Automatic annotation (TrEMBL):
Family matches, as InterPro entries: IspD/TarI, IspD/TarI_cytidylyltransf_bact, ISPD_synthase_CS, Nucleotide-diphossugar_trans
Name of the protein in its database record: 2-C-methyl-D-erythritol 4-phosphate cytidylyltransferase
CDD domains on file: CDP-ME_synthetase
PROSITE patterns named among the record's database cross-references: ISPD
GO MF entries: 2-C-methyl-D-erythritol 4-phosphate cytidylyltransferase activity
EC number: 2.7.7.60
Keyword field contains Transferase: yes
Top enzyme class: transferase
Amino acid sequence: MLVHAVDGLIASGVVDRIVIMAPIEMIDAARELLAARAHAASSIPVDVVAGGVERTDSVRAGLAAAPEATHVLVHDAARALTPPSLIARVVDALDAGHRAVVPGIPVADTIKAVDAAGDVTGTPDRSGLRAIQTPQGFDAALLREAYALDLPATDDAGLVEATGATVSVVPGDPLAFKITGPLDLKLANALVADATLPATTGAAVTG
Ligand SMILES: Nc1ccn([C@@H]2O[C@H](COP(=O)(O)OP(=O)(O)OP(=O)(O)O)[C@@H](O)[C@H]2O)c(=O)n1
Ligand SMILES: C[C@](O)(CO)[C@H](O)COP(=O)(O)O
């Protein structure tokens, strides 16, 4: 998954440097994997540093390892099959002047809010919801400001929202799905084995 994610970033043609945040006990294994991959000869530097307990700890470590960055993409290795075209779309939006950009796709299920007892407390209008993917792109100064708030968050855009800055959504892609459970892994393996797979599903719409 890490190798696929890195190769996708390189293939996008829009990143200058990649910093991997890995669990400390997997740093050597990650370096070996990356050195052995087909694109190891790419001129784009790929560094591996220690991540943290939570994803925000890992991103904080990544930001510290890239003090020179003016723009940052935060990507999940778990979204290993993210199409390069999606990565380029996020950077295009940053180039157009947006300071925080996330890919999103419409939700296919009806979403319910529930309370601690499991009783439904509301049904938000589905047309106004998006499932958010990565990479999430930021003006680096804005992301550093967001991290200075030291709040918990499940994604980086959530921290940026807390600063009051606007976060823009660009069309995501179903291929950028997060490989979380065994079914996701089966799907990812089938997609990787499928030589007829298009570079993008072309199904990217924000509605
Ligand atoms: N300490 C952590 C935890 C997660 N991640 C990032 O978050 C992604 C998703 O990892 P994880 O939280 O384990 O996601 P899931 O497999 O979806 O598991 P969970 O249900 O616990 O969220 C990883 O690819 C990695 O990029 C990270 O950098 N540092
Ligand atoms: C960043 C993210 O992929 C956006 O959907 C998601 O919030 C990551 O969650 P995780 O629990 O760290 O996998």
